[in-house]
Amino acid sequence: MLDALKFFLFVILLLVTIMLNQHVTSKRSAELDLDLLWQIQDTKGVYVIPNQTLPSGVYTALEQSMIIGSLLEEYNDVNTSWVGQRDWIYRTNISCTANDYNHVLLTFHGLDTFASVYLGDRTLGTADNMFVRYRFDIKHQCDGKTHELRVQFRSPVAVASERARDRDPELPPVLPECPPDVYHGHCHVNLIRKMQASFGWDWGLAAPSMGIWKPVRLEYYSSALIRDVTVAISEADDDLWAVVVCVYLETGLASQRIEGTLTFKIIGVSLVNDNEQTLSVAETTDAQGEIWIEQRLTVRRDGVDRWWPNGYGRQALYSLYVRWADAAVNSVKLTNPDTYISEKVIRIGFRTVQLNQERATDGGLMFYFKVNDVPIFAKGSNWIPSSVLPERSYDANYVKFLLYAARDAHMNMLRVWGGGLYESDHFYRLADELGLLLWHDLMFACSMYPTNDDFLATVRTEVRQNVRRIQHHPSVAVWATNNENEVALRQNWYKTEANYSVYYEQYVELYVRTVLPEVEVADRWRTVLLSSPSNGDQSLKEDYIARNPQDPLYGDVHYYNYFLDGWNAAQYRGGRFVSEYGFQSLPAFTSWPEARSYGQKQLGELIQHRQHSPLGNEPILTMLRYNLPVPADPTADGYWPTLIYLSQLSQAMIVKTETEVYRAHRATFGTMGALYWQLNDVWIAPSWSSIEYGGTFKLLHVWLRAIFAPEHLVAFVNERRQLEVVAVRDTLAPNADELWDVEVRLHRYGSFRPVDRRRYAAVRVPPNAVALVDRWDVYGYLAQKGLRPADHLVLLVASRHEPAGGSPSPPPQPLAENFVLLDKLKHVRDASTASTLVAVSVVSAVCSERSNLTSVSLEVSVSAPALFVYLQLTPENSTLKQCQFSANGFLQFQPVRTVQLTCVDPGCRNKIQARDITVRTVNELLTR
């Protein structure tokens, strides 16, 4: 009763404080978020924005106050560039008392990026790295009076320019100095520790934001605070798991002697040795008030379930509880004993992950992950920040939507790309729950970097803090210290060749001598790669910079080729692990807010403005000209809706073809990973993404459910002009060979009925493996029959084998389906071109007011085979969000099929009717 009364009084006090525009602490609390009632203004006093909530950034605050329009609309990326070139101030008032605490710290978990922090008339310190946590001792100012807390930010654009100007002229420049002009970006981002993509990238706008992008907290305690807990879990012997737990304690900002007890519990799990539950500690923290303590716990193997990647088993997670209690708690009667106690709970998973690089029969090295001793074919994508504005990138609902979309597309791995952010705790928790393994770059990308003492010192802190925070998550599979910097240096991307030895020494100093040791000290559980792409162990043998970092016989590769026909499977050989590949497309016509008000020419100019690839739209157009009938006049009505549709179809075909070749090459070339570039976007613009900004699936993402399906029938025309058919099975259970029946149907484009069929009965498909079904000379067969390849395609279906005999049973359900084009679509002459080919009707529509999710069942009817049916909602349905079709861009060789449409519909206000669905097909273009 007394505790409840105290809590009630605390709530009343807090409410009164908010009304007085102040913040106070509670003696019963360990920390308090300072997230309310901030004021933001520029240093010139032109713009003053009151009553702001953290996390925050200046662009977000200006948008919400309607001082600027949305950064993501029209040309506002350029029109608002002045925001990132001004200095800004955040201020609020705080009041606290420190009578009952030995330590009171003001902790900023994320300041973006160059900031000076003041409390009252005292300067607390400065910040210069957005990835670093900063702590300031304010105990002596916790006097019960109100003090102004002020954070003054300097423009990162200005600071980066100053650093370039002040750099030692004896040293070569840090390259590249500026992004390509087409980025509309800013220079010298590699001289500062800020999200590298925030100064502009080929897929994103420049938005050099400033602000308090993570929580600010008052932390108060009297003994020690548990900051982080890391684990290293291994199989001790046949019956046991060994869990080595490292507890990172803090005692303010100064060295202090601590004596007390650490208690360890894995909730719901018994430890083998009860003595492991407690550990007596008598130690002295270092000069920064930090120390780490290690304890080994032992768990019986049969007492826990294993954690598995998506598609291989359950994601079993367990709560590890750690408690610090100072010896004073038991020896002296204290007024507030809880201030001498600190607790932390993390979730852990029992699994092993090994990156295998044994010698291969072709003389190279293999490169694949084994999880719980099972080789895993890594299927997935590359993750960029969910927003270009850091504070928005932590939007829990949107991050959840994107990660669920990856899980539902049968992905089991995402690569956290090195030009973005160390993600939120929420991101890693979801990855654990969904079974998404993470290939995690450190935040260095596509640049050379300085190696002066100050830069290396802040990098050490950055790596140490972030690896410790993230380390315990079972989803993290491997670290890589950078993205593409090894290959950039070796292949002279940035004209570094003239000073190669200097840049090489800087590379080794930064990654080998600085980043690598910090990761290895904080995480003894995982492999650390020096770069991606790299030759893995072979790069180490070649003094860290391989002669060919893109050698397909080693490590991982990034493969892009924009002017060979990407629809042609014969061009893809792959490597051991393809960690980047892909192709651009345009967001849906209805996704552009400007599509309603702009004419064709205006929209084309905006698309060109947002096309940041130095190659422009030419790769997209080239690929379309190779394969499809393309509209010729950019000013004609309907040009952009048609081109957008075709670009998405082409992207889906390219990534489908390439991915399926890589899956089939598991057996022949040892390919064990396919991570396409990229999952998500930060604005509506031409890019490589499969999910548009806001959540609309491109055709590619709809297709990925089949492309990455754990049981799949891969088919493509190989380099010998044979139709290669491969059964792919990633599943483990049942742990025995399965028998599949495979049917290959040869169709004319204009007929529902096949011209011919080939049947393969009882194809043996082992678990977690691929099996060749056939290599068929389909072109030779067509020639014998006097048939034209351009008038035909192949449809394939696999089902589980049903033994002959016994009672009659219904036809088996398809296990997998696929198709193969035998010539370019632009050569097709036998397909129906009627404008009334497709009709869509609404069968049922249900909306849940509880979930705000509307589900519509659509019936799609065709009078003749329809090629790549593309369904879209009309622009009038713009209030509906994250609308997805269960199938889209499909070949319809049956008269009727059902498609489900789901949308987020707040308040269930919309009633979708058939007229709200637009339809496009390739058939319509064949007459042009």
From TrEMBL:
Entry GO terms, CC: lysosome
EC number(s) from the headed UniProt entry: 3.2.1.25
Protein name, per record: beta-mannosidase
Main subcellular localisation: other
Residues in the signal sequence: 1-26
GO BP terms, alphabetized: glycoprotein catabolic process
InterPro entries tied to this protein: Beta-gal/glucu_dom_sf (IPR036156), Beta-mannosidase-like_N2 (IPR054593), Beta-mannosidase_GH2 (IPR050887), Galactose-bd-like_sf (IPR008979), GH (IPR017853), Ig-like_fold (IPR013783)
Pfam families named among the record's database cross-references: Glyco_hydro_2_N2
Domain Beta-mannosidase-like galactose-binding: 38-214
GO molecular function, one term: beta-mannosidase activity
Subcellular location as annotated: Lysosome
UniProt organism field: Anopheles atroparvus (European mosquito)
Keyword Flavoprotein: no
UniProt key word DNA-binding: no
Family stated for the protein in its record: Belongs to the glycosyl hydrolase 2 family.
Keywords noted in UniProt: Glycoprotein, Glycosidase, Hydrolase, Lysosome, Signal
Catalysed transformations (reactions): Hydrolysis of terminal, non-reducing beta-D-mannose residues in beta-D-mannosides
